[in-house]
Design goal:
- There is one protein chain.
- By secondary structure, this protein is of the alpha+beta class.
- Helices cover about 20% and strands about 20% of the residues.
- It has two helices and two strands, in the order αββα.
- It has a two-stranded antiparallel sheet with strand order 1-2.
């Protein structure tokens, strides 16, 4: 968006891919992410062990 680029963030994943604990950890740790959006131009989606947050605005400052 207008050549805006965030700095890289290093992610640490301590649970292996396909680990049966991953879905339980997701529910306990990330479920509140879906409660963050409060306005019509914000949305959140969660499916299995993925989540997405969306904020829409005309200017970058409105969306951050």
């Amino acid at each position: 968006f207008d050549d805006f680029v965030l700095e890289l963030v290093e992610l640490w994943n301590r649970i292996g891919q396909g680990d049966p604990l991953s879905i339980i950890c997701y529910i306990l740790y990330n479920a509140d992410l879906l409660d963050i959006p409060r306005y019509p131009y914000e949305d959140a989606l969660g499916y299995v062990d993925d989540s997405n947050l969306l904020a829409e605005g005309n200017m970058l400052e409105e969306s951050v």
